[in-house]
Structures are given as C-alpha cells and as structure tokens.
C-alpha cells in the first residue's frame, strides 16, 4: 500500500483509515515497545494539564482520534469521557480495554472534522498523536473549539520537532531507518511506520501549531516540550467572555516527562 502522505483530501483520509485498520491488532504493543513506554508518561502529562478542569463537579471530557483509548482511559480516572475515532478496528480494541477497566468511558465512531456533538458540550477536549493525521488541521481545531464549553481547556499531544542539540539527527535516524523495519517485522505494515516520520516532518513545529490554535480562537495557548521536543504538549482555553484580549502563544520552557 502506498504511503498516505502522498495523497490529499478524502483519498488521504481513506488511506490513513485503512492503514490504522491494518495495524490495529499490534498497535498498542508495538507503540509502547518502540517508545520504551515513554508514550505512557507523555499521556499522563497531558492529563495533568487538564486535571484542574476535569475535577470540577459535573465535568466531561472528549478525546478525539482516540484510537485504542489509551488517553481516554486515563481521562476516565477523573471524569466521564467520550472517545471518538474514525477507524472501527481501533475502536474495537479500545472498547475491550474500556470494558475491562470499568471506567466511565464511552467510545463511538466519528470524524474529527464533523464531531457528532452540540456546541459547548465538553469541559475538556484532547487529541493524542492524532491531529497530524487529520487532513484539515484548521478544521479540526475549529471543531475542538466548537464542542468546548466557554472556559473549557484543550490539550494536544503530538510528535514534534526536537529542540535539544544533537537529538534531531538521532531521532531522525531512528524514525526513518529503524522504526519502519521493526514495524514491518512485527505488524507486516512497514509503510505505516514509514508514514509516521513523514507525517511528523510535514506537521507544524511548536510555535506554528500554537499560532494556528490562536487563529482558531483559543487563548492562553502554551506548549511544553517532552523528551527534548520529540513530542510537544500544547494547551489552550476557549475564552469565557466575548472578544477578550489575546496573549501571544508562549513556550513554558519546560521539558517534562514526569
């Protein structure tokens, strides 16, 4: 199967959907192994960023591009959570994990560009390692903004661009030379793990993503580099008042994996 990065629009979305359907059986095991379980720490960092909102009485969370529900299950420790994904085989894997957990998490099929919820439905919205796969980034950000309540918080966890000197070439070598070979050996879908580094390379860097979030209407936009910028965690707030003054997006300057 040809790498989805070479396509645009609905055809790219269709190929990404098929790609994830193909790797669903080995997705969790391979991802945790390839990242040395660091991805779990990154997700916990995302939950901590929204914990202040999730612990409010009656709070509800939405996890978009939820995949096999790893982040949705973490959010479900604190508040009822809905997970949405457009890949049914990934959702089926997640549903089994939800059943075993007993947490208040509900998964359903849905498109990040047309979320099946009314305006202002959730107190928290998250995306982990999924927004770079959406064919219209600005459209996805607009949908996240739409479904958040005023005063609600968004957290976007995504692979990014390393900022530590010397890390970028090492990361690039691992991503482009080692990871696809291991992915092919385990999942027989090497093209999926070739798509990963290509999609990260084409994805906006930390300041650019923050600016796009502000363009979508989010305020108090910040980001934290994780593991030297291999991943980044962006947060923002849907303003609670009309036409507030916006601050420039900033980096906290913190590299936090805890």
TrEMBL record:
<keyword id="KW-0808">Transferase</keyword>
<dbReference type="InterPro" id="IPR029063">
    <property type="entry name" value="SAM-dependent_MTases_sf"/>
</dbReference>
<dbReference type="InterPro" id="IPR004033">
    <property type="entry name" value="UbiE/COQ5_MeTrFase"/>
</dbReference>
<comment type="function">
    <text>Methyltransferase required for the conversion of demethylmenaquinol (DMKH2) to menaquinol (MKH2).</text>
</comment>
<keyword id="KW-0489">Methyltransferase</keyword>
<feature type="binding site">
    <location>
        <begin position="111"/>
        <end position="112"/>
    </location>
    <ligand>
        <name>S-adenosyl-L-methionine</name>
    </ligand>
</feature>
<keyword id="KW-0830">Ubiquinone</keyword>
<comment type="pathway">
    <text>Quinol/quinone metabolism; menaquinone biosynthesis; menaquinol from 1,4-dihydroxy-2-naphthoate: step 2/2.</text>
</comment>
<dbReference type="GO" id="GO:0032259">
    <property type="term" value="P:methylation"/>
</dbReference>
<dbReference type="Pfam" id="PF01209">
    <property type="entry name" value="Ubie_methyltran"/>
</dbReference>
<feature type="binding site">
    <location>
        <position position="68"/>
    </location>
    <ligand>
        <name>S-adenosyl-L-methionine</name>
    </ligand>
</feature>
<dbReference type="GO" id="GO:0043770">
    <property type="term" value="F:demethylmenaquinone methyltransferase activity"/>
</dbReference>
<dbReference type="InterPro" id="IPR023576">
    <property type="entry name" value="UbiE/COQ5_MeTrFase_CS"/>
</dbReference>
<comment type="similarity">
    <text>Belongs to the class I-like SAM-binding methyltransferase superfamily. MenG/UbiE family.</text>
</comment>
<protein>
    <recommendedName>
        <fullName>Demethylmenaquinone methyltransferase</fullName>
        <ecNumber>2.1.1.163</ecNumber>
    </recommendedName>
</protein>
<keyword id="KW-0949">S-adenosyl-L-methionine</keyword>
<keyword id="KW-0474">Menaquinone biosynthesis</keyword>
<dbReference type="GO" id="GO:0009234">
    <property type="term" value="P:menaquinone biosynthetic process"/>
</dbReference>
<feature type="binding site">
    <location>
        <position position="85"/>
    </location>
    <ligand>
        <name>S-adenosyl-L-methionine</name>
    </ligand>
</feature>
